[in-house]
From TrEMBL:
Biased composition (Acidic residues): 103-113
Recorded superkingdom: Eukaryota
Disordered: region residues: 41-113, 267-318, 339-362, 571-596
Polar residues bias: start-end ranges: 296-313
Ranges of compositional bias, category Basic and acidic residues: 71-80, 339-354
InterPro entries: Actin, ATPase_NBD
Pfam families: Actin (PF00022)
Membership in a protein family: Belongs to the actin family.
Protein name: Uncharacterized protein
Biased composition (Low complexity): 580-593
SUPFAM superfamilies: Actin-like ATPase domain (SSF53067)
């Protein structure tokens, strides 16, 4: 088989809301270049789908002019007639040729079809909550992406698989790729496996927060721990936060699209537990600018001076000299007046500069809401719909900090909040891993997915985990593993009680400490800054294998951390949340805006595709070729895909 090239590899990551796609691997890995909404629309022919809604439009147009094919009539001799009489053979309402005069313009109905790229009416969503619910619509979406990108024939395909997909789903996708897309090679890559490739680690606890669900997966030594994997946990995605904002702001006239754009804006933030909400404007009015400060307009910018007022730039004019005044007048007098004015301004407190408050301390904030408004254009051909982009500024209060709180109907019943529920799933998955690797996973959290892009989400989730499941370092001294052989207390220092001696020596054993007084020897070692105190195998009552089976003596974790994203992927740097109206610039458009660490899965898919098709070239059965598909069929994919 001829080797594959970087520019010929097609990557597709289907999601519940958006499908990412890219043809070719760039030298410097970038976020997905194309983003498609994961939806299709039924076509006119049953069983077929279109990427956009097709509307049937019927309009009236002028009837086309018809030409008569009758033979020319003979000339008729014209005779004089009385006034008011008509020529013989020409009744009233007819011309000389015998045609009836048109009193009204004739029209006919004409039917045509147009695409409505903004409408979602009648849409079919092939993937819901991570599950494939309509394979035919999904295959139509894959075919649409393939046709739009138009790759060459020698193009291998990589699809990022969701953990909830069944074996039958994977087999049917494999069949479609080879038989309908005619791919020369094909491979799956698990979403969690792609995440650790993107982060460059072998151990991680991957938390993928999607549109309507979350997946929690433990990966140890490049092996996915499927026994305790939590896949497609409903109610823990980005839509849950949108629903909560709609519940809080719906009574104020907010629509779901407004709440969706609010969630994506910079002013929405999830605060760590215990953080007080900012006070209302009435409570903080006395903390505003001093009376001597200039007034500000509605935009927050200093207003222009009114008539009769003098404009004072304050410190901005410091160091600026009026050369004309110095040349034309007394230099020393001018400099003295300048110093006098500056000192008087400082005494009056006329410094207009005020410290800028962070978003978490502002009681109100504004964001830009963009929408497409239909235009009533009667001159449009055939009555076609036309839209214009409308932008307006909307002010929101402290409700923007409550996106992660539980819904009212679910409070205390099935949900304690999205952060608490995800933290509980993290604890459940980690407890299913070998005890010696649990602490490593607590310090290797990878929080990815578009739902985690909300400002403050990662920090708040870490704070919840720290509060509920992590012990303080000092508390771990009292929860140490006490071997059963230490049930007998040690000597208390009495004169008649012999201290345990090391075998063959006349010195006290290593478990003897003057300040111990029979307490836990591990606690003594920890409090005396001697955690690595050697335990002699000859000490009475000691297990000779205790050193080999000790795993840090801590059953509960004492820290939680997230993995550091590689700095050399400059295109994936976090630049804060970005308000992206309409879910993107348009269906199938080139990616715009900021996409950072939340897309580590797509980054890992690019790295994995490079290794599978270019570096390894199938030696490790990382992909299935067409020849192998012809021999084994789609069921043989389980032996090849990662």
């Amino acid at each position: 088989m001829a080797p594959f090239k970087d520019e010929h590899i097609l990557l597709i990551q289907p999601g519940s809301g958006t499908t990412l796609a890219q043809l070719g691997l760039p030298e410097a890995y970038t976020p997905a270049k194309h983003r498609f909404p994961t939806r299709m629309f039924p076509a006119e022919k049953p069983g077929e789908y279109e990427p956009h809604r097709i509307r049937k439009v019927t309009t009236k147009v002028p009837a086309p002019s018809t030409t008569s094919n009758e033979p020319p009539k003979e000339d008729v001799e014209m005779k004089d007639a009385a006034n008011g009489a008509t020529a013989e053979g020409n009744p009233a309402g007819q011309d000389a040729s015998g045609n009836t005069e048109k009193t009204e313009e004739e029209t006919v109905e004409e039917t045509y079809y147009e695409e409505d790229v903004f409408s979602e009416e009648g849409a079919v969503y092939p993937i819901q909550d991570g599950r494939i619910v309509n394979r035919e619509a999904l295959f139509a979406l894959l075919q649409h992406i393939y046709n739009l990108l138009s790759p060459p024939l020698h193009t291998p395909i990589v699809i990022v698989a969701q953990p909830i997909w069944s074996v039958e789903d994977r087999n049917e996708i494999t069949r479609f790729v080879f038989e309908h897309l005619s791919a020369p090679a094909f491979s799956y890559v698990d979403a969690a496996f792609a995440a650790i490739y993107g982060l460059g680690v072998k151990d991680a606890l991957v938390v993928d927060v999607g549109k309507t669900k979350a997946d929690v997966t433990a990966v140890v030594d490049y092996q996915i721990q499927r026994r305790t994997r939590s896949a497609s946990i409903l109610g823990l995605g980005g839509d849950s936060m949108t629903d909560r904002l709609l519940e809080l702001l719906g009574s104020k006239g907010f629509t779901r699209e407004m709440c969706e754009q609010l969630k994506r804006s910079d002013i929405t933030e999830i605060l760590p537990p215990g953080t007080p909400l900012p006070a209302s404007a009435s409570q903080t009015a006395h903390q505003g600018a001093p009376p001597a400060a200039p007034a500000t307009d509605s935009t927050g910018n200093p207003s222009a001076p009114t008539e009769g007022a003098t404009e004072n730039n304050g410190d901005n004019d410091e160091g600026v000299l009026d050369v004309a005044a110095i040349v034309s007048g007394n230099t020393s007098e001018y400099l003295a007046n300048m110093e006098k004015d500056k000192s008087s301004n400082k005494k009056a407190g006329a410094d207009p500069k005020q410290p800028k408050l962070p978003n978490s301390q502002k009681s109100t904030a504004s964001f830009q809401f963009e929408e497409f408004v239909e235009i009533d254009d009667e001159t449009a051909p055939g009555g076609a719909k036309r839209y214009k982009r409308n932008t307006r500024e909307i002010t929101v209060g402290v409700e923007r900090f409550l996106a992660a709180t539980p819904l009212e109907w679910a409070r205390g019943l099935i949900s304690r909040g999205i952060l608490e529920d995800i933290a509980a799933q993290i604890n459940y998955v980690i407890n299913g891993v070998d005890a010696s690797r649990r602490s490593d996973l607590w310090n290797s959290l990878a929080i990815v997915g578009a739902g985690s892009k909300v400002q403050g989400f990662t920090q708040a989730l870490l704070a919840v985990c720290q509060e509920k499941f992590i012990l303080a370092p000092s508390a771990s001294f009292f929860t140490s593993e006490i071997p059963s052989t230490f049930s007998t207390p040690l000597p208390t220092g009495g004169t008649n009680t012999p201290a345990p001696m090391a075998q063959g020596q006349g010195q006290p054993g290593p478990m003897f400490h003057p300040a111990a007084h029979g307490v836990n020897p591990l606690l003594v070692a920890a409090t005396h800054n001697n955690p690595g105190m050697p335990l002699a195998p000859g000490t009475p009552g000691m297990d000779p294998n205790i050193q080999q089976r000790s795993s840090g003596h801590v059953q509960a974790p004492n820290s939680v951390k997230t993995l550091k994203f590689p700095e050399y992927f400059s295109e994936f740097k976090d630049n804060g949340n970005r308000n992206a109206p309409g879910a993107s610039s348009g269906p199938g458009s080139t990616s715009h805006g900021s996409h950072g660490h939340e897309e580590a899965i797509f980054l890992g898919a690019q790295i994995a595709a490079k290794i599978f098709f270019v570096v390894d070239q199938g030696q490790s059965k990382s992909f299935m070729s067409r020849t192998e598909y012809n021999e084994l069929g789609p069921e043989g994919m389980r032996e090849y895909a990662f």
